[in-house]
Design goal:
- The chain has about 120 residues and is mostly helical.
- The protein starts with a helix and ends with a helix.
Length: about 120
C-alpha cells in the first residue's frame, strides 16, 4: 500500500510538473503571439499614419496649386485688361491724331479754295 501511495505521489508530481511545463509553454506561446500581433498592429498603424500624412500633403499641394492658378488667372485677367486699356487709349490717340490730321487737311484745302476764290474776284 505504501508503495502504491508512493507511486501515486510520484505520478501526481510528474503530472503536476507536466501541467506546469504545458502552462508555461502556453503562456510563452501566448506572449509570442501577442507580441507579434502588437508589432503587426503598430506596423499597420504606422502605415495608416503614413498614408494619412501623404493624403494630407497631396490635399495641401492641390489647394496651393488651385490658389496659384486662381492668382495666375486673376493676374492674367488684370494684365489683359491693362493691355486692352492701353490699346484702347492708343487707338483713341491714333484716332484723335487722324481726326486732327484730316481736319488740318480740310482747313488747308478751305484756305486754298478761299485764296483761289479771292484771286478770281
Amino acid at each position: 500500500m505504501i508503495r502504491l501511495d508512493s507511486k501515486l505521489q510520484n505520478r501526481e508530481k510528474e503530472l503536476q510538473a507536466e501541467i506546469r511545463l504545458k502552462r508555461e509553454t502556453a503562456i510563452n506561446e501566448t506572449k509570442k503571439f501577442t507580441t507579434a500581433l502588437e508589432q503587426d498592429l503598430k506596423r499597420k498603424v504606422s502605415e495608416a499614419e503614413y498614408f494619412k500624412n501623404s493624403i494630407e500633403l497631396r490635399v495641401k499641394a492641390l489647394e496651393q496649386t488651385a490658389q496659384l492658378r486662381k492668382v495666375g488667372i486673376e493676374t492674367t485677367k488684370k494684365m489683359q485688361e491693362s493691355v486692352f486699356e492701353k490699346n484702347k487709349a492708343t487707338a483713341e490717340m491714333v484716332n484723335q491724331n487722324e481726326i486732327e490730321k484730316i481736319a488740318d487737311e480740310i482747313e488747308t484745302e478751305i484756305k486754298q479754295m478761299q485764296a483761289i476764290n479771292m484771286e478770281k474776284y
